[in-house]
Amino acid sequence: MRYVFIHGAGCTRSVFDPQARAFPDALVPALPGHGCPGEPASVAAFAQALAGPIAALGEPVVLCGSSMGGAIALELALARTPGVRGVVTIGSGARLRVAPALLEGLEADFAAAARSLAPHFFAEPRPEWVAGAVAAMELVGAAQTLRDFRACDAWDARERLGDLAVPLLALVGERDALTPPKVSQALADRVPRGETRILPDAGHLAAIEAPAAINAALRAFLERLPT
Which domain holds residue 217? Predict the structure, then answer.
């Protein structure tokens, strides 16, 4: 059983570099519009783009998504995509509302909004992490980053989560300023086999900020799943 790591809004697949090194058989796709062709404007559209390649693997997988990637993972699992045996979310939820001021800022002055947003991805915003987050948003570009965040704001799976047929682990940084722990807890509470784990001293992009804790939790989750 292997992981499929799904990055989030305004990010690239590099957000999962620490996990790609720890799980060398994992798949770390670039979402459409994030280094490969496409202009998806909804979580469902992102999920549809990944469904075929995941099903074509013909082997069991666990989906692990960061932020918007968590929503995409949930969409894939709710659609009963063949091969999906579990879902891990990192800093995600059943509803991903985005502050109107952020959407307005991204539309009005993308460069300034990206610089303002990036430090909030981390509990302790190291300059290299912040610079990397800004560079990722610039690489994705203003139009797709704005589509990403609008897709998050429009997505709501709260009334469907009782149908999730696979186990869920909701990981979240204790100091996640964008999707606080209560958001992950509310997600897990709606899932028949859901659990939450809060990561001390980590922020929103915990895959980068707390890779050892994330990787340990991912290994333990795999070990608990039936083969």
Answer: 2-224
